[in-house]
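tool=predict chain=A
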Amino acid sequence: MARVKYTDSDVALMARMMRAEAEGEGKQGMLYVGNVIVNRAVADCLDFTKVRTIPQVIYQVQGGNYSFEAVQKGNVFYNRARGVEKRLAKKNLDFWRQHPGKYALWYFNPYAPCPPTWYDQPFAGQFKQHCYYEPKPGTCASVYK
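tool=predict ok
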């Protein structure tokens, strides 16, 4: 059973986002970004109580800006999804979760060492240039299911 309901267009949208955000980090890096996207769709806490679908997650606005830099800046986000990224996105949507993105709701590239917290959320781990952050224990049980 899929972690979140999705359509073919959701797979393509998520694939574009994964590529735009982490293409330089290879398939593994794109899978970690995919973890964060799916985790936000299933999380019923913090800033993610009103996002349940892949488009809602990807186009979410927080603090007056899109949550994902790739949507703000466009870069490769507006290119068509390729087969390899679609397969990775489907893998995330169906079952794939691994550390450090397994329970992460946030990631970013600090262009420096990863800080121990990100907006008061604990550091979960790093893959190449991206730092991943999980919700504080006890604040988001839904992401751990």
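The radius of gyration is 14 Å. Strands lie at 61-62, 65-66, 106-108, 117-118, 121-127, 130-133.
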